[in-house]
């Protein structure tokens, strides 16, 4: 339930140069760039709402199409990977193609994908194709707002508009969850494909308010590198479906990616990043911990509906405290950083995540209130985690390379999250009861959900131990890193 900023820096550094070369808020064309902000922010929120709707609608979709949890999860996992990769691609394209034209492309893909999904809603294969096409468009609209404001604003004004994106993410996630819950209960989950069609109403405003100019400063996009990342992530997700030959492309793509980074100066990520101990250590922790992020969000509606028989509209209401507290925590991250150093904040956040999942694991059979409390604690934990863990990653990163480093860091988050959904869905399909004795009460549904929650507790604790060990070693061996790690900012 935490939103990694869709930073365009992975694609190029043109945004900063553009902002620096013209007066703040006024491009060389003389057109006031602020006129486009409301339109782009609306599209940003609207597309996030649509994306969240489908993340939360897995349970009714599975029931309607008689799908296993692992199968239905594909409409969230594969599209999650596409969102992460699409963010990088569209960020790069925005340096050589006008944002207005990219928005037209985005809307076209959203409409086509939504029509495919609605017309073919009786077949999951067609639904999945529709979701993939639709998401290719959603990725653009979700990314281009951030790209636009970083190109046209700087200083305090830039921070204000980026702040809007963080607040909007929490708002959109809440709206999407509520809308999907009520539609699935009172109408049909298939109507989720009709909502995106409303985006065509924005076309006149895009034409009149979003500029058609372009700086032509692109340094290109590493298509091959992104393709390999996509193969690795997709292969892992598909491997978790049936544990067959999908491990082969994962291994091959990983070897090719390492070779590509080492031999290509224009690769997706600088080879020196992998010798930067704080950065590579943080990436390992990010991959572990952020797999838990969407895992619990995906499991939550299945668990509440399965154990307590609650309708989806009521389940969606239970997420409100979590989103509100998560947004509040993220908003207070600056104040927190003045009281806790990065090491303390990350440790506290990971402990909160483990405690939240443990509370859910213990009380899932007997208390909906406990599940709401657990989700709220979980949201607070991730709201607290993002900034200090990012800070830990960049301890020894040269300023000139920090933009690309942040971009690749966020890409790892976007890859790890759907992988977490994949392994959670796999466990839900197999219904293990290894840790059923650790929950209060007992039921057939509750026992295996409790086991999965305790499995997620274990993954979180592994992340905590790995963080303390790796950064403890860095702290002992590098005085500069130790000073920055324990500094309150």
UniProtKB/TrEMBL annotation:
Its main location: membrane. GO terms for molecular function: transmembrane transporter activity. InterPro entries: MFS, MFS_dom, MFS_trans_sf. This is Putative transport protein HsrA. It comes from Kocuria varians (Micrococcus varians). Residues 11-25 have a biased composition (Low complexity). Keywords: Cell membrane, Membrane, Transmembrane, Transmembrane helix, Transport. PROSITE patterns: MFS. It is a multi-pass membrane protein. The chain crosses the membrane at residues 36-54, 74-93, 102-126, 132-149, 161-183, 189-207, 219-239, 245-261, 282-303, 315-333, 345-364, 370-396, 408-428, 448-470. Residues 35-475 form the Major facilitator superfamily (MFS) profile domain. Residues 1-28 are annotated as: Disordered. The gene is hsrA. GO terms for cellular component: plasma membrane. Pfam families: MFS_1 (PF07690). It comes from the Bacteria. It is found in: Cell membrane.
């Amino acid at each position: 339930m935490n939103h990694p900023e869709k930073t365009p820096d992975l694609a190029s550094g043109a945004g900063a140069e553009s902002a620096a070369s013209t007066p703040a808020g006024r491009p060389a064309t003389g057109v006031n760039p602020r006129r486009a902000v409301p339109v782009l922010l609306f599209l940003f929120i609207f597309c996030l709402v649509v994306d969240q709707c489908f993340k939360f609608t897995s349970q009714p979709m599975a029931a309607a199409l008689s799908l296993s949890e692992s199968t239905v999860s594909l409409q969230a996992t594969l599209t999650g990977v596409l969102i992460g990769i699409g963010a990088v691609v569209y960020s790069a394209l925005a340096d050589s193609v006008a944002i207005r034209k990219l928005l037209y492309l985005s809307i076209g893909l959203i409409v086509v994908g939504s029509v495919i999904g609605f017309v073919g809603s009786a077949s999951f294969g067609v639904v999945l194709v529709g979701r993939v096409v639709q998401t290719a468009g959603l990725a653009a609209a979700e990314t281009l707002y951030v790209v636009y404001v970083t190109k046209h604003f700087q200083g305090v004004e830039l921070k204000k508009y980026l702040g809007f994106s963080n607040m909007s993410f929490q708002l959109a996630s809440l709206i999407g969850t509520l809308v999907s819950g009520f539609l699935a209960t009172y109408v049909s989950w298939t109507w989720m494909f009709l909502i995106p069609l409303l985006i065509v109403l924005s076309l006149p405003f895009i034409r009149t308010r979003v500029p058609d100019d372009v700086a032509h400063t692109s340094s290109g996009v590493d298509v091959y590198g992104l393709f390999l990342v996509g193969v690795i992530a997709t292969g892992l997700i598909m491997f978790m479906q049936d544990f067959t030959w999908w491990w082969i492309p994962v291994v091959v793509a990983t070897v090719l990616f390492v070779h590509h980074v080492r031999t290509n100066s224009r690769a997706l990520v600088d080879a020196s990043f992998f010798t930067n101990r704080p950065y590579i250590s943080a990436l390992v922790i990010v991959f572990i911990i952020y797999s838990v992020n969407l895992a619990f969000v995906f499991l939550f509606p299945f668990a509440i509906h399965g154990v307590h028989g609650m309708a989806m509209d009521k389940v969606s209401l239970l997420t409100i405290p979590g989103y509100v507290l998560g947004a509040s925590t993220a908003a207070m991250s600056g104040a927190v950083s003045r009281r806790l150093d990065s090491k303390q904040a990350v440790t506290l956040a990971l402990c909160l995540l483990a405690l939240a999942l443990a509370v859910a694991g213990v009380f899932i059979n007997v208390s909906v209130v406990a599940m709401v409390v657990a989700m709220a604690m979980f949201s607070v934990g991730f709201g607290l985690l993002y900034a200090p863990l990012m800070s830990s990653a960049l301890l020894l990163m040269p300023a000139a390379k920090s933009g690309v480093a942040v971009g690749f860091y966020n890409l790892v988050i976007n890859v790890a999250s759907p992988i977490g959904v994949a392994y959670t869905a796999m466990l839900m399909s197999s219904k293990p009861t290894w840790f059923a004795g650790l929950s209060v009460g007992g039921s057939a549904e509750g026992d295996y959900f409790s086991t999965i929650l305790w499995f997620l507790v274990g993954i979180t604790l592994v992340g905590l131990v790995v963080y303390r060990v790796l950064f403890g070693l860095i702290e002992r061996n590098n005085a500069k890193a130790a000073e920055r790690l324990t500094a309150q900012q």
